[in-house]
């Protein structure tokens, strides 16, 4: 499974949030303005952190650039995050920042009722923090940008690593002179409608982006009730379409927009899906799968001088949806059983037409 040449050592960098999740699960249908029976659990969370853990579980070394504190709560959060295999050594520590917390209420089927996110810590990130990490960022296989970080930082990353930029200006380490000189894949996850505004000026500079339709509308500068076709049209007029755009549509699956085409990838039949428990974190798992399969595609294309199977954005979307469904089958924000084998197995069960690509992935490292 994805046995990558160890001399290459691809790694990802996630620039984004880390927090404690407090999730309240209702035993029955949620009743507004009333006390609802249920249970509450705490776990590690944060969109960036969740994406990072999913990537680690899929076999990719992953570093995070975030903002850390030093209270007892912070020390516990940092310890548990590093125990999950996520590197935090490149993240600055600011002693006075509060512990980030995400509080949400979930229906009994795992659907989100509402949430409040206290992400004041990550708002303290500055361009200077990123400037100091240029050697790490420059050599990454992918840089994933979480919309929790300040707009100035998003725009700095988009400008430096934009899809149309010239890597020749980078200080590439001579130890990597035999490595493909392509830039890191630049990936956007807007996080929420309120945070999506931060991508409006630079969305088209990303290689890959995974908003939902409400976030896409905000980025396009149109009404949230507008059709996806109008949203995409507005992005095109503003030359603000990323290289590959994957729009999450909930039960309607995912829309794939590339160049002049727009294709809907529907969810598999219910009998083919894993049983859903908790939708929180499903979008993060989808984003991680898009990164994972895109890195795989680049490596195979470079090493074997060919494209694996018939891999295209529509197939990547199916892998992303399979990853989201597998994540939703766990009570945790990141499914602790996830690995590359189980992702491929779930994708093959959900979308049997991917069998050739799955076989290629399973044997892709035998070069």
What are its keywords?
12 helices; nine-stranded mixed beta sheet; UDP-N-acetylmuramoyl-L-alanine:D-glutamate ligase; metal ion binding; Ribokinase-like; four-stranded mixed beta sheet; 367 residues; hydrolase activity, acting on glycosyl bonds; disordered N terminus; kinase activity; Putative Kinase, PfkB family; alpha/beta
**How many structural domains can be distinguished in the coordinates?**
1
Strand order of the largest sheet: 5-4-1-8-9-10-11-12-13
CATH homologous superfamily placement: Ribokinase
CATH fold description? UDP-N-acetylmuramoyl-L-alanine:D-glutamate ligase
Q: Compute the separation of the termini in Å.
A: 12 Å
State the helix count: 12
Order of helices and strands: EEEHEHEEEHHEHEHEHHEEEHHHH
Spans with pLDDT under 50 lasting ≥5 residues?
1-7, 166-181
